[in-house]
Amino acid sequence: MQRALNLADRARGMTSPNPTVGAVLVRGGEVIGEGYHERAGADHAEVAALKSVDGDARGATAYVTLEPCCHTGRTGPCTEALITAGVTRVLVAALDPSDKVDGKGVAALKQAGIEVEVLDGTVAARARAQNEAFRKYAVTGRPLVTLKSAMSLDGKIATASGDSQWISGEESRRQVHALRGEVDAIAVGSGTAHIDDPLLTCRLPGARRQPLRVVFDSEANLDSDSRLVRTAGEFQTLVFVTDAAPADRVEALRRDGVEVARVQALRGRVDVNDALGFLGSREIPILSLMLEGGPTLASSFVAAGAVDKVMTYIAPMIIGGESARTPVAGEGFNMISEAVELYRMTHTRVGDDVLITAYTSKDEW
Would you state the pLDDT for residue 209? Predict the structure, then answer.
């Protein structure tokens, strides 16, 4: 199963809105076939594994990282492919919580006389984590939201003058670009868009899918000369505005190739929950959203209880300054008992920095 999980990892960021899945076929103690879902619309992992077999797969055991599908979409049901191939045993690392599957795949295999075992423990946990965005969307219809930040050891994301390049080290920045190539969308607030003039693309070599670039900009103040607008014809760009945005500014952005969505306002800003509902209901839904700045946008998501995951790069430096910005602005909480608690925390050394990853829920999706 570890091999199947490793195969699935090869397609990280390439399969959305589908999950990443790997499959290995074993007979007589030997691997006779393997495969993974490479991209949406391509063969599912089980079918790819069956096609790789030299001969037939009768009597084989299939190790699959996610419950086989039992419905017809752009490809046929994987349960039928396994049954037709004569597979006699299937080990599943994680069940598929989506309405179209949700145990139906396992039931179809068992009804056909195939022995099925659903695993638990560390292997199952890795399989669930591998598709955490898919799993959250399947249950809620909304993207998994990751709050990413880089700060000094004393919690500053910039100096008092606004200088922030660079707090994190080169290896951390390279890792962030890899993350951009894996998520469906990246978001910034209007302040960050104005101050930093970011491009918000993955700039690592190789064929990578570029994320949807999202700006929370209630009054449509995004400058037509910004890099986001100037490259809107090349990279998908979405701006969330409210009724406070003048019609002429909205139309100007649309003429420049920017998608503009009017959503509800909350205390004068874009309503985070309304925006997340919009992202999840797109024709090709957004399953994962990474917040890249700034502190005001972060505070809106924290206040709305809309952050699922936190990734903080901590650099070995002290910046100081009362007016120097911190990762989360806003009014904050009055009492420690009201603060957002984090769970399932891990830490990793990334060059000279330390990456802390944690979740706002004790439970996995």
Answer: 83
Q: What is the pLDDT of residue 164?
A: 87
CA distance 261 to 311: 28
**In whole angstroms, what is the distance from residue 190 CA to residue 306 CA?**
19
Q: How many domains does the chain have?
A: 2
Lookup result for tokens 């992992």: 45
Identify the CA nearest to 148 among candidates 363, 352, 350. Answer: 350
Same domain, 250 and 341: yes
Decide which of 78, 104, 133 is a domain's last residue.
133
Interval 244-272: pLDDT, tens: 999 999 999 999 999 999 999 999 999 99
Q: What is the CATH number of the domain that holds 263?
A: 3.40.430.10
Domain range holding 27?
1-133
Token pair for 64 = 């699959």
Q: What is the DSSP string of 317-352?
A: -----TTS--S--SS--SSGGGSPP-EEEEEEEETT
Shared domain check, 250 and 340? yes
Whether residues 91 and 239 share a domain: the answer is no
| Residue 73, SS3 per DSSP | coil
Distance set, CA 300 to CA 4, 135, 237 (Å): 39, 24, 21
Please name the residues in contact with 125: beta carbons below 8 A apart, sequence gap of 6 or more.
364
Catalytic residues: 46
The per-residue pLDDT for 205 is: 79
CA distance readout (Å), 38 to 21, 32, 44, 45, 186: 9, 19, 8, 8, 22
The one-letter code for the residue type at 108 is: A
Residues lower than pLDDT 50 in the chain = none
Alpha carbons 173 and 178: distance in angstroms, whole number? 9
Q: Are residues 195 and 296 in the same domain?
A: yes
Write the DSSP assignment of 194-222 as a string of letters: HHH-------SSS--PPPEEEEE-TT---
- pLDDT at site 207: 59
Identify whether 365 is part of a domain. no
State the CATH number of the domain containing residue 79.
3.40.140.10
Burial string for 47-84 (b: 16+ CB within 10 Å, else e) reads: bbbbebbeeebeebbbbbbbbbbbeeeebebbbbbbbe
Supply 15's token pair. Answer: 């399969």
